[in-house]
Design brief:
The complex is a heterodimer of chains A (68) and B (152).
Chain A (H helix, E strand, L loop, with lengths): L1 E2 L1 H7 L4 H8 L3 H8 L7 H11 L3 H4 E2 L7
Antiparallel strand pairs in A: 1-2
Helix pairs in contact in A: 2-3
Chain B lengths: L4 H30 L5 H30 L2 H30 L2 H10 L5 H32 L2
The chains are: A mainly alpha (68), B mainly alpha (152).
Chain lengths: 68, 152
């Protein structure tokens, strides 16, 4: 799973710790999410979408998805 | 810090209550045995067994509260550590169990580790040797899970 978390966070000038606080997770979890080495649960994905004000599909993309 | 309150509360109640019970239980057993109401060994056994069971139940309670507090990635790390680390540890213990249970290896091992202990020593050593590899496996897999997800 690919995601735009790092870009969205940078746009807001947030540190990983600040994003972690918004999401109610640890900084290590934010790091694991950003590097794409941990896929969030659906509730956390929805929370991420709410925090950034974007639909889930604009933040996360399936790396198996064929290019359009 | 506030979210950790249930964990701290469970820890204080478990260990504080456990120590208080052991203290009061010791006094009660001392009194009961000196009055001839109960054999001292039986009293000690009852207090120690209740103490051990209560501490372990409390440890489960602490673990449950702690699992509720940590986030989902931390929970995943522990699930992976429990399954893979615990299972790998059990496999190591299983080899020891098979070798020490039957066949010619049993005698060879006995020559090296000795065979003169009492059954209670074997019970204690067996329990420890079952738990230790599982704990080591758990720790290794938990550390590996996080290290693998920290690389940028």
């Amino acid at each position: 799973m690919n995601n735009r978390l790092k870009v969205l966070r940078a746009e807001r000038d947030w540190s990983q710790a600040q994003l972690a606080e918004h999401l109610g997770v640890s900084r290590q979890t934010v790091n694991a999410l950003e590097t794409g080495r941990y896929d969030p649960s659906l509730p956390l994905a929805f929370k991420i979408a709410r925090v950034f004000g974007h639909p889930i599909e604009s933040i996360f993309s399936d790396d198996q998805e064929p290019t359009k | 810090m506030r979210k950790w309150r249930p964990v701290i509360k469970a820890t204080v109640i478990t260990f504080g209550g456990g120590l208080l019970f052991a203290f009061l239980g010791g006094i009660a057993v001392g009194y009961a045995s000196s009055s001839g109401w109960i054999a001292p060994e039986m009293g000690e056994l009852i207090v120690t067994a209740v103490f051990a069971a209560a501490i372990m139940a409390g440890a489960l309670w602490i673990g449950a509260e702690w699992m509720r507090v940590i986030d989902e990635a931390a929970r995943e790390a522990h699930k992976a550590a429990w399954y893979w680390g615990g299972t790998a540890g059990m496999c190591v213990s299983g080899v020891g169990l098979i070798l020490s249970s039957a066949g010619p290896w049993r005698d060879i091992i006995a020559r090296h580790v000795g065979s003169g202990g009492s059954p209670i020593d074997y019970m204690s050593a067996g329990a420890a040797l079952m738990i230790a590899p599982m704990l080591i496996g758990y720790t290794v897999v938990w550390a590996w899970w996080w290290l693998a997800r920290m690389r940028g």
